[in-house]
Amino acid sequence: MLLQQLVNGLTLGAVYTLIALSFSLVMGIFGILNLAIAELFMIGGYLGFTAIGAHLPLPVAVLLGLCGGAVLAIVIEKIAYEPLRDASLITPMLSTLGCSLILQNLATNLWGSDPLQLPDELLGAQLRLGPVTIGSMQVVVLAASVLLVAVLGLVIQRTRMGRAVRAVAENRDVARLLGVSASGVTLLVFILSGALAGAAGVLIGLHYAAITPYVGVETGLKAIAVMVVGGVTRIWGALAVGPLIGMLEVLTVAYGGSQIRDLVVYGFMILILLVRPQGLLGGGKVDVGRV
Amino acid sequence: MSTYYAGLLADVGILFLGGLSVYIILTTGQLSLGNAGFMAVGAYVASYLTVTAAVPISIAILAAAMISGAIGVLVGFPALRLRGIYLAMATLGFGEMVRSFFLIFEPMGGSVGFHGMRHISAAYIWTWAVTVLMLVMLIERSRIWLEMRAIDDDEVVAELVGLNATRIKVGAFGLSAATAGVAGGLFAHHHVYIEPGNFGFERSIDFVLAVILGGSTVAAGPLLGALLLVILPEALRFLADWRLAAFGTLLIAVLLLRRQGLLDRALLSGRLRAPIA
Amino acid sequence: MTPTAEAPLLRLDAVHKSFGGVRALAGVACAIRPGQIVGIIGPNGAGKTTLFNVITGAYHADSGDVHLDEHPITFWKPHEIARAGVARTFQNIRLFASMTVWEHLLVAQRHRESWARRFLPTRWVDPAAQSRAQEVLGFFGLECARERPARSLPYGMQRRVEMARALSSDPKLLLLDEPVAGMNAEEAEEVRSLLLRLRGTGITILLIEHDMTFVMNLCDYLYVLDFGALIAQGTPSEIRSNPAVLNAYLGREDRA
Questions:
Q1: Which of A26, A110, B210, C240 could cross-link to B19 by cystine, CB 3.0-4.6 Å?
Q2: C149/B161 CB distance under 8 A
Q3: Between B and C, how many residue pairs show a Cβ–Cβ distance under 8 A?
Q4: How far is C120 from chain B (nearest CA, A)?
Q5: Complete DSSP assignment for C2-51
Q6: Which pLDDT belongs to residue A114?
């Protein structure tokens, strides 16, 4: 039973990880909270569901969500971030909120405000591994998450643009002095962030077997908590913390009742902020005043 | 006045008070994304007092303000350790915690919500709003406000100049929370029914939005911001299904054109100031 | 220097301060007498600004003691030390970005702890603060800039606003970190006469400055700091002929 919960938590956590990575890419590098990410993954989910509804294979659905997220992220970067990049951290946060209002409105008009259900035949198959039952969708979600993180890792650690991103993340001013093209890096970060969010949207749709225009906010806030616990400016912190929070959440629901779930998750987040602002796994201390 | 306009007016008054609460704390440079949490405390305390203990509404709201304010002070102490985006994240978490606390707090209805309050008029709400506005405008001209701004500008220098940053920042948290508590008490008695969902992240963001849209350096800023946030979606009704998108577009446009908000000190004092180097 | 039995206003005993193994102050001891202008000189990186930071409580000394008026203030918080009568300026000017000159002069005044005075409009309840600000404004010749945002003023004026902010708190001890850096000879001369007038009002001034002509013409007494240690002290004429000082300054190029 415990094992079963852990597997469920792992799946949920995998999706949180993706969205948290999406948030923390932008947060870690530009120090702003891109609130539109929540709606990017909602739109990604709808695009994926539309593809599934059209009997396209699952990978195509995920890819469609991913591309949709990336394209929208470019638009958001151009309209809501680029012109405000030297403003205080509140202003770009609110302009991305403007974007999320537009996206949510778009989704309700295109797909209606009622939940969209996943066709039953997709959900049928189940794998039994000893005492643990894994839905085929859980396998898909886990596998896709691992793949996406691997690709992200490859882009950031192995490519030239990725190195530029890391340079900027390490130290914005020094990177500028070294002549790292700031606008190129900005765009790449937004594209990666949007792509992750879009793909995660499809996956969370598969996890819950349904999607609504309002799925963004709640899951988005949870992903923000994951990002914070992993260390606001430490992109890879989310990797370990996503599954941790996912399991924490599932276990609280299983053994403490669903009502106290959010209390536990956000309480944990505040505790981490106060005790280890550099994140659960972060190394040295961070100057909490600088970002 | 029709009930429709009275309802809008009441919404403006409540949102304005919420905006003021963010404005106060923001003056010390602390961004709170969780003021709906303080509003929730005010709403539940005031409702409990009027419904269960038959306390007169004005006294109930005063009590709600004081209890919210006390909780604000308690939150303010740990908040001293955090700045900028870290503080914003922690207050966001605080807001969500308060909301989920009321979800499981069965004595006040839990997820079902709480009702039984007597309806209050828009005029009553505005009596409070105008009173609080005048108080804030008085304080804006006092030295405590200068001290709050000094801490926002440069906390290290402020301390070296003799200001007790700890006390001022914690005090500002208390004042902000008390104002949000008033907004909560009024909200509960205007809608005569409250549930935890009324006090979520979106509400906190609305408060911040009212301040940033209207202008974060003058008390009239959140007033104009609240007015726009309530009136604009109504005025855009002719767009039917697309009014939220239109609203989002306008919001981005205002932020792009006037990032300091529609009103600022220079505009209100009619002084032309040299740009700050 | 006239010998006097008066107790020192500020006294440092064997103050040590290190940053991660780097020694910034190594057993500094000095006694600043009231009513004097005292200069601290020394090569870059000698620990002069660190000394100011320890006196004002921005850092605490690792060991040793700081006494103000014979009260130990070593571990006081910056705002407590400021209220006890120590005010300072900064090497890199640090003015409040949102404030006018006038607001700088109001906010820095040591407040009388009365709620009415703090929470009600200054104009109504605190005429004393207003007249003090006006007085300081006049002293520094800043009347014309009263309502200007301080950060929008020319450099020399910004320096004066910083001094005015420090002075408006009515300090016993004024710490000036390079008050004439970046100024031309004429502006420096203006500052010199302002400081002499301030000394006339009984304020003790401790200043860091690289401009030797300025220091030698102004200060009553000098301390020379090198590598965090005091290597000499005395009147300007004594310092001028001190071999250790000459060595520290002439040897500077070799070390840089």
A1: B210
A2: no
A3: 98
A4: 5
A5: ----PPPSEEEEEEEEEETTEEEEEEEEEEEPTT-EEEEE-STTSSHHHH
A6: 86
Distance of CA A159 to the CA centre of its chain: 22
C98 contacts B277? CB cut-off 8 A: no
Give ipTM to 2 decimals. 0.89
Closest CA to C101 of C130, C65, C129, C137: C137
Phi first, then psi: what are they for A163, rounded to 5°?
-60, -40
Interface residues from chain B to C (CB-CB < 8 Å) = 138-139, 141-144, 146-147, 149-150, 152-154, 156-165, 217, 271, 273-277
Question: Minimal Cα–Cα distance from A132 to chain B, Å?
Answer: 31
**Residues contacting residue A80 through CB under 8 Å, at least 6 positions apart:** A36, A92, A95, A96, A98, A99, B252
Q: How far is C60 from chain B, CA to nearest CA, in Å?
A: 13
Q: Which residues of chain C have pLDDT under 70?
A: 1-5, 111-113, 250-256
Q: What is the pTM of this model?
A: 0.90
Residue B165 with chain C: CB contacts under 8 Å: 79
- Which of A22-36, B44-58, C173-187 is least confident? A22-36
| Structure confidence by residue, pLDDT tens digits, B87-126 | 988 999 999 999 999 999 999 999 899 999 999 999 999 9
Size of interface A-B (CB pairs under 8 A): 136
**N-to-C CA span, chain A:** 43
pLDDT tier for residue B1 given thresholds of 50, 70 and 90: low
Q: Is C175 on the interface with B (CB under 8 A)?
A: no
Is A209 an 8 Å CB contact of chain B? Answer: no
Q: Tell me what pLDDT residue B276 has.
A: 38
**Average pLDDT of the residues in A227-250:** 83
Is the pair B, C in contact (3+ CB pairs within 8 Å)? yes
Report percent pLDDT > 70 for chain B: 96
State pLDDT tens for residues A265-280: 899 889 988 888 777 7
Under a CB-based contact definition with an 8 Å cutoff, are residues C88 and C174 in contact? yes
Host H or E run for residue C208: strand C204-208
